[in-house]
Amino acid sequence: MKNSATAFAPASIGNVAVGFDVLGHSFQTIGDRVTARRIAEPGVRIASIGGLVCDLPREPEKNTAGMAVLSMVRDLKLDFGIELEIEKGIPLGSGLGGSAASAVAGVVAANALLPKSLTKLELLKFAMKGEEVASGSVHVDNIAPSLFGGLVLTVGIDNPNVKQIPVPPSVRCVLVHPHMTLSTRAAREILNRSIDLSNVIWQSANLAGFLTGCFTGDLRLIRESLEDVIIEPQRKVLIPGFQAVKDAALKHGALGCSISGAGPTVFAWCEEPQATAIRDAMVAAFAAYKLDSDAWISTLDPSGARIVDGG
Amino acid sequence: MKNSATAFAPASIGNVAVGFDVLGHSFQTIGDRVTARRIAEPGVRIASIGGLVCDLPREPEKNTAGMAVLSMVRDLKLDFGIELEIEKGIPLGSGLGGSAASAVAGVVAANALLPKSLTKLELLKFAMKGEEVASGSVHVDNIAPSLFGGLVLTVGIDNPNVKQIPVPPSVRCVLVHPHMTLSTRAAREILNRSIDLSNVIWQSANLAGFLTGCFTGDLRLIRESLEDVIIEPQRKVLIPGFQAVKDAALKHGALGCSISGAGPTVFAWCEEPQATAIRDAMVAAFAAYKLDSDAWISTLDPSGARIVDGG
């Protein structure tokens, strides 16, 4: 039981091409930090918001980290309040699970202040309350990977089953974030509500092949399966140069390349030796469409959100 | 290199509720037997067809086992011919992969006569040629489980990837075959060509949860995931009493219950101690709809088609 603690929660890739709304994986290289501090007055107070994004709501009910911690304070009927300092390391509207990471970092930091800490599965529900503020509906495909780490399957909403899926250790994820924003709502609204059966079967084969490839360490099967035939063809028109960026990644040996969550960030899976060349080729392809971008490389390390400073 | 060999190929359950056209599993308790005998005259000759079904075509090109072995004889340019005796243990039109089992037993028996035997993956392509005769199109979701055994994922048609998926050893499959027939073509024609996105997401969650439950031995996750929300609701109207049979299985503790392949056979997964009670309840439920039925229980033993007699 501490008076103050700082948690780091990694960014995350929702969907992972083949698992729309059910798969996600953490991206360790970037993330949000939240410091929680015990205060005498009840409720939640946001003391500061800094880093890449500063113009977020300061009212706890309208802030993802604030609302997540507030739902925790209320549910546990805590006899103290919590003050939050939020340090954003994830660009807004990037499709990298920034709102989820803030909510997760908030509850993980607050958890360190409790007389008896909660499990990650218990924290998940509070983080979801925060994510709801940002997305307007309940989604766990960014929350769970940021909290648990690595490649994560989440099924069920009321009592989610969360399963970490092994990934061959040589795999790296390359992320390229073009300097444009896309709203999650707009990216959802573009989707057809009805899908051709032949594509449903094809995507099922890809999802099953991808998971089986991960569980059995079969990189060839991962390569043949990591392809989104349902969502990506509809959303790629929202991202200038997407096809050129994807072609560049695949030409340099990527196992697969698709849109991170609702976009516009593009991710590629590859093996470690190819990662740098793939990153550079993807950045160059966006540049040809006059889009500057930031790019990072991460392992698929299964460690999730964690306390980085506290005492 | 033998002059004669007999192979057994097990029945199989296509789709397994959540993996339409990509998953299947063998059912060891029943199957077809084919004896292959070396003869001097070239080509393939069907000497006899016996067992549960006798009125199948005797011309090799129109018979699944005949066509499978014929494609093998032609492709390998064998300097001898093969005579086949087919013993059907799988009822026709039952949704238990009978045509696939005959094709598989044919190529496995014929393989024992070759100077150098082929791998199962090589045999798969020849068996597919036989299955094509029966179904009018190329499907491997019954061929692969009958040939390899256990729960099998097959993705890709031209160069199929076949993966055996572990199943917790306590799991049993109960099969109940009502005395009626359904054509695979009719069962395919009833399907909508377009699926609602929300059901696609739900089914993806079920498929991913089911596979992950199998790989991690999580029976609770298997139970929560073994549910077909896309195909079963459309096909169940073709099977009188289906809902009552399913309800009976679930009431007695089944992990899940759905239609085997294109039907009308219904299967349930359960743990070993519940298997007999579930079988009896399902048979009774069909009887209430004036349908007699046969019923069997099998392990999910990962052994597939095999030589049972030859020398």
UniProtKB/TrEMBL annotation, chains A, B:
Transmembrane segments: none annotated. The lineage of its organism: Bacteria, Pseudomonadati, Pseudomonadota, Gammaproteobacteria, Steroidobacterales. Its EC number is 2.7.1.39. One of its GO terms (molecular function) is ATP binding. Coiled coil: none annotated. GO terms for cellular component: cytoplasm. Catalyzes the ATP-dependent phosphorylation of L-homoserine to L-homoserine phosphate. ATP binds at P91, L92, G93, S94, G95, L96, G97, G98, S99, A100, A101. This is Homoserine kinase. Belongs to the GHMP kinase family. Homoserine kinase subfamily. It is found in: Cytoplasm. It catalyses: L-homoserine + ATP = O-phospho-L-homoserine + ADP + H(+). Residues 69-150 form the GHMP kinase N-terminal domain. PANTHER family: HOMOSERINE KINASE, HOMOSERINE/4-DIPHOSPHOCYTIDYL-2-C-METHYL-D-ERYTHRITOL KINASE. It comes from the Bacteria. Pathway: Amino-acid biosynthesis; L-threonine biosynthesis; L-threonine from L-aspartate: step 4/5. One of its GO terms (biological process) is threonine biosynthetic process. Keywords: Amino-acid biosynthesis, ATP-binding, Cytoplasm, Kinase, Nucleotide-binding, Threonine biosynthesis, Transferase. It holds the Pfam family GHMP_kinases_N. Residues 215-286 form the GHMP kinase C-terminal domain. It is an enzyme of class 2 (transferase). HAMAP family: Homoser_kinase.
